[in-house]
Every structure is written in structure tokens, then in C-alpha cells.
Amino acid sequence: MMKKIIYIWTILVASSILVSCQKELSDINKNPNAAESPQPDYLLTSVIKSAADNYWGSTANYSASQLFIQQWARIQYTDVDRYVFSNASFSSFWATVYANNITDLNTIIDLGEAQGNPNYAGVAHILRAWDFQLLTDAFGDVPYSQAGNIDQYPNPVYDKQQDVYHGILEELDLALTTLTEGSAPISGDAIYKGSIGNWKKFANSLKLRIALRISDREPELSKQIVAQVLASPAGLISNNAENAKVTYEASPNWNPVAAIFSTRQDSRISKTVVDRLYDLNDPRLPVYAELPKDTTKYVGVPNGLTTGDAANLGLSKTSRPGGYFTAAEAPAVILTYAEVLFLRAEAAARGLSNEDAGDFYNKAIAASFNQYGIASQTVINDYLAQSSVKYNPANYKRSIGDQKWIALFGQGLEAFAEWRRLDYPQLQPAAAGVLNGKIPVRFIYPGTEQTLNSKSYQDAVNVQGTDNLLTHLWFDRY
């Protein structure tokens, strides 16, 4: 299925890459060699890979959010690990979502409706919801209601983060009512291979994620959403086989982490993770890290060292991320059974449901172990029996935050959002950081927005606060 990607670029036409183009230019600049009627299956494969690459790749993940929450660290070119960023640092992440993904997903929705196949539209709405969730989690206020319609809105307004989350929830509800099992099959689905039932579970699981994301701000709405998803006949992701993920192939359709490690050695696993997993005797350590060539123990790199101090540690004496994450066919994990269980545990702890928080917490850890092939119930029980692991109802944010951070290893953007929301684990800022002893809590808007969409950009800054790494977003209340 993923091999279709190499043909995608010859058939895309409706999806303009240049968000700054005016209608006249988009009408004139048509590729005479491109098909006038792109097929939704080819577009779907393309946009799924683009979204997965964007989520799992460099700009937003292992060169930013994974450094902030200390899953990975830099051993070369350490500026980003010291929080040295500019207004160009996150441009490719932003542009990929808006110019590629949202534009193509809007086209898939139109094509699905025109061709009488609403399931394409339903899947596209779910992927739109996920893309916008990534954007607003990272930047805060972002264009949503006017995004992806260049002809009508060449300079889209920025919606408040609260409104973006509300829009995402509405879009997921629309998807759930649009998707129909047993009819109108879809192709090009690199996540669930056309299983509409699994797409519905993914949609409900995303709703649950958003319910907890807004829970410090809108607890009553959160409670309503939790009740909806728990009562939904479509269900939630209920085992690791239903995890939302993209499994890559050999080059050129390989995992972006594998691609970077094929030519560079900038990154290592963070000392914070290694030390924590050693303290817990956590069996995921050999999955998350490789043994260095010159030692018999896993060795992490402290975050935020100067280039000289980091280089002194030695490439052969420090641990790369494990092969699960660096192999060519390693999956880009989007949302897992373990995360769903952690969300249910937290919902119960907050009084948003009548479920047993401790029980779901234990099940979440077991699901994370199983995800990585650790199936021994004895091993799991011994791990759960540790005093430092046992669920603490008096401080559920610490219990869930610490363990969710471990379980979300590799998913930098999601781990970054949950760390800001739960305030655990308690991390020390970069050793040679440039933010006066603080850790970033958002991304900086791309500089192109200041020139191409200046009024909307300035309006957003006036409402949200200074456009820097330390401005707290609406969901990050405490």
C-alpha cells in the first residue's frame, strides 16, 4: 500500500502547496501533466504518510518536543537541546500540516462526497482532527475555521485554542456519524487497511484524549465527552492490535528516524529516561535504548549540554535509541491502547467516570509492556508491586504522569502535551539552557506568518501572549 506513494506526486492537482497563492495564480499555474481528477485512495495514502512523517520526524519530534521532555538528547549540534530556536525552526511542521495535509484532506472529503463514498470523508475528518490537535497543542491559537480554503480565505484568522478543541470534537462527531461499516469500502488506508470499525474506535479515542486535554478548563464538558465515548457502541481502541500506527517499509518509504540515523549520529537517549528506567528495573529499557559499543551498561546523555561537553561523552560510549524506533520498518505510533487506558484511569481519578482509576492504571502499564513484546505476567506483577510504581490516588497526576511519560516514549508531541498538563514527571531544565532555568511550553509561530498573514498573526499574539517558547497555552492551566 505504501508503495503507492511514489506515484502520488504525478496525480495531485487540487492540493496546492503554496498557502500564500491568490485565486488568480492558482487558476493559472496548473500542471498540464497532472491528472484533473485525483483518486481518493492515492491521496489518502499520501496524506497518511505525510502526517506520520511530520509527527514522527525531526522538526517537531526528535529535534524539539522529545528534547523538551527528555526522552532523547543531543550529543552533536546541541543548540536545539539548549532551547535555541528561531521563528524558522518550526516552519516545516506548520507548512506540512496546512499546505499538504489539510488541503489534501479537504480534497478527499470533496471526492468522497462526489463519488458517493462517505467513508473517505469520515476518515479524512478524523485525520483533520488529529492534525489540528497537533497544531494547537504545539502553538496554541491557530487557523482552524478558515484553514485550507485559500480561494476564500487567503489570510485565515487564528481561532482560540478552546474553539479549536471544540471544533475538533465536532469534527470527530461528524466522522462517527458519517462512517458506515459494511458498505462503501475504502483503499489507500495505511493505518487500518480499510477497517471502518477501527477508524470509529480511533475517533472515540481521540475524543477521549481531547476530553482530558481540556479537563482543567472545562470539567463539565470533559465529563460529558467521557460519558459519550464510554457509552458509544463503536467503542474505544481495546487492544494493541487496534493501535493507530503507520508501519513503514524499506527506503524510500522508511521511518524518518531510520532515515536520519542512516547518515547522522546527532541523537542519543536521554540520561533522564535511562536513569529512571534503571531505578524502576523497567524491562522496557533494552527496547528504548541500545547498548553502547564500548560499555556493558546503557548510558544516556544529559539534556542541554554545550557542544563540547556533549562531544566529550563519546559516540561509542553512549546509547542510541533502540532498534524498535530506528529500524527502517519501525512504526509511527499515533495512539495506543495503553494511552486509552491511562486516559480512562485519569478520567476516573478526576471523577469524570465511575470506573476504577487504579485498575485502569495497572492495565495501562501492562498494555505498554505488551506493546513492546513483554508479555510475562510475573514480570508485570513484580513491576507493579514496587512502591515507586503503585498507583497513588492522593497524587494521581504524579502516578499517571510519570508512567505515561515512559509509555509515550518516541511520541514527543503527545508526551510534551501531557507533561505540560499533568506537570509530571518533574524535569530539570537543560544543563546549559538559554531560558533562565525554564523548559519550553510551546512552539514559536513560523516567521512566514508575520509576513504573509500579519494581521491574523498579530491578533493572535495580542490575545494569547508573547510569541516565545515560555507563553503558556490555554489548556496548560497549572
Automatic annotation (TrEMBL):
SUPFAM superfamilies attached to this UniProt entry: TPR-like (SSF48452)
Annotated keywords: Lipoprotein
Highest taxon of the lineage: Bacteria
Gene3D superfamilies found in the cross-reference section: 1.25.40.390
Record protein name field: SusD/RagB family nutrient-binding outer membrane lipoprotein
Source organism (scientific name): Arcticibacter tournemirensis
